[in-house]
Amino acid sequence: MDKLFDYLIDLSGSSSYSIIFGILVACGLGFPLPEDVPLIATGYLIWDETMRWGPAIGITMAGVLLGDTILFYLGQMLGIKLLESGRFLKKAKVRRTRAYFRKYGDKLVFFARFVAGFRAAAFFLSGAMKMKYRKFILYDGVAALISVPVWILVGYGMGHYFGDEIATALKKIEHLKKGFSLVVFCALGVVAVRVYLQYKKAKELKAAGLSKA
Description:
By secondary structure, the chain is mainly α. The chain has helices spanning 2-9, 15-28, 36-47, 53-84, 91-112, 116-128, 133-162, 166-172, 174-212.
């Protein structure tokens, strides 16, 4: 990843926009590339005047959302067929999962954007569970409006304070990045536990009602 970052911050001219765009689309499709690397590089390139704020924000948002959208539709086309085949989940569990996803899917999509290792799976599942695209892109877009500018600002600030030593400085904040992802992942875990407990309680109440009947 260090080589990728070094390559990105050495970009020049209009090609920088298309290269950043392509890498962000690849990140959205689940390629093993951390999305924050091209975003921080974008901030640095704005600082050294290779890129401009308006086009940079526009192209990064477009790349992020296009990658997410493609992944969503792949889930919609392929994911449900895999799930309903019965190889992974029984059909009854698929129906229950879909019902809970309709209730909590928006929270999952929003928070998944901040967890790199979980994002691709969550967006693919969103399509597989037949979440409406307008709902998906709304929550994903709102989350991206937070995460994308923040990482770009980080890159811009690091360029301002560290200049050519930005790569060294980036290594120093790696632990902070991992810590933030861990916090968000824990929050998702709490939501998952709550969903499971509600499901278990509903199942027990249903069983009690049947036994009385």
